[in-house]
Amino acid sequence: MDKFVIRGGNPLLGTIRISGAKNAALPAMAAALLTDEQVILENIPQVRDIETERRLLASMGAEVELGYGRAQHRTTIRCAHLVAPEAAYELVKTMRASTLVLGPLVARCGMARVSLPGGCAIGARPIDLHIKGLEQLGAKISQEHGYVVARADRLRGGHVVFDKITVTGTEDLLMAATLADGETLMENCAREPEVGDLASLLIKMGANIEGAGTSTIRVKGVQRLHGARHRIIPDRIEAGTFIVAAAMTGGDVNVTGCDPEHLAALLNKLQEVGVKVRHNGESVRVMGDGEFKPSDMSTEEYPGFPTDMQAQYMALATQAEGASVITENIFENRFMHAQELVRMGANIKIEGRRATVRGKTQLSAAAVLASDLRASASLVLAALVAQGETIVDRVYHIDRGYEHIEEKLRGVGAEIKRIGEMFPKRLSTPAVLV
Ligand code: EPZ
User: How much is the pLDDT for 421?
Assistant: First the structure.
């Protein structure tokens, strides 16, 4: 398994360009299931989860072409003949977002068989709200042998009120409602930018949607959707990760190709702890000096502070002069990185969903283990300021959602190298049409 070897101490200097958002690309690829025409997606990140999504769609009979060379961030999908409306356990267990095919399949094919995702490192993460919503659109849902089976001759418009704000739940129902008979009103929806991006793709495909990006969305169902071309939004979490890296190392970095508006909660928090940030148009400049004030933080749904930046913020809080209390409100078990940071010399106390981080502590290099995507990012950040050479193991977690992170960090002066088997050769050779 690949590992990263990171020598800490270098301030990051220069420019980093942000890739497309993994969490916008995955629902967009699932949306292609809603039409038999070609959907072309631009700015698709080259990360492992996209490869998993390609295999998932191909397993149903879709033609999926991941671009290469100059077109390496373009994906062309055609779901003309879907042979099996099924998401197998083998794929779903590697990527929960595979459940995003449930709504589109039952809407387009009248039938979907999707493996239940099972537990996850950061929490139970059930999909009961997806199922409840589809039932409100008239789907008959049963559970057998670890699979959810949904059936409906044609979904019908309905009134969905989410008991809890759910990002992929909102996206799943949004896609299903586009082909339903009649109007659907969805309330207490997620307002994440990725939901808005999915809606703009669906509208280009001929859907009738109002209110995406707010907590109330109205969808007038149509008979069929057509093909479209769409550019995926930038990855705000990747951008946030590099912004915190630049701040922690006392660097001066321009993060380009991002949308500062999507980063408002993070940038406000960083200014609060003393980081100089300037942003315009599509870039954010971070000028850190490695000195930080402590500040409490609670994760919330968008536009609040994103849970996907909690681990990275914890790494920064270890370098603040004083105590910061971090409260994780979204997932019940998202402090796995804390014990690894303690192994590097951090002072962190966990009580349920609250972590008290006392700084400033000089971190020292150690062998650490990544447990999930964002936890592994926080370990890389800690290693960039630690004394000595840190070994981060199981970086396959980070490859799921960061495109060539070590090359991007090396580009701004980090001493980081990957050891072990290279990221699957698949992505470096021309794609084949399946
Ligand atoms: C999305 O996951 C993201 N994944 C996650 O990013 C992100 O952490 C999360 O939203 C919150 O922002 C993708 O977009 C692919 P939720 P999702 O449904 O949709 C509970 C990353 O690092 N819930 O909004 O699965 C759930 O357990 C990943 O890129 C139910 O109880 O998250 C959680 O406590 C990690 N029943 C809360 O709601 C349901 O049916 C929010 O989860 C659905 C959710």
Answer: 53
